[in-house]
Amino acid sequence: MEDKIYHLSTCDTNRKILAEVKPGKKVKQINIKENNISEEDLDYVAEQLGGYEQVFSRKAQKYRKLGLHERELSEQEIKQLILEEYTFLKRPVSIINGKAFAGYTKEMVEGLKAELHAKKK
Fold first, then answer.
1. pLDDT tens-digit map of 60-79
2. Cβ proximity of 77 and 100 under 8 Å
3. What are 5-40's pLDDT values in tens digits?
4. pTM higher than 0.90 for the full model?
5. Domains (ranges, CATH) in the chain?
6. CB 97, CB 118: distance < 8 Å
7. 3-class secondary structure per residue, the chain
């Protein structure tokens, strides 16, 4: 699987993370506003991280606007929301050396950085 990072180019946090982890030219960087995550990659990341909930952003403005905070969402509904609207994807989402990362916690950034700079097997 190709190494890639799905991010939002207009997001200051995403730009800061990319500057910190220094992905290099071999990692495909995909602006989700132009090309949302593919269903295949979303399925892969969700499987790696323990479900679609792990890559779903409840911070998206549309989350409250659509009243989604008022009900339980199934994994299938979450998957569909992410595929239909890039804003629901927790960002950045990365697949590096077959390992998946999502969000911007300190642990995720450190893990992503370590994986990006590890020797390829």
1. 999 999 999 999 999 999 99
2. no
3. 999 999 999 999 999 999 999 999 999 999 999 999
4. yes
5. 4-116 (3.40.30.10)
6. yes
7. CCCEEEECCCCHHHHHHHHHHCCCCCCEEEECCCCCCCHHHHHHHHHHHCCHHHHECCCCHHHHHCCHHHCCCCHHHHHHHHHHCHHHECCCEEEECCEEEECCCHHHHHHHHHHHCCCCC
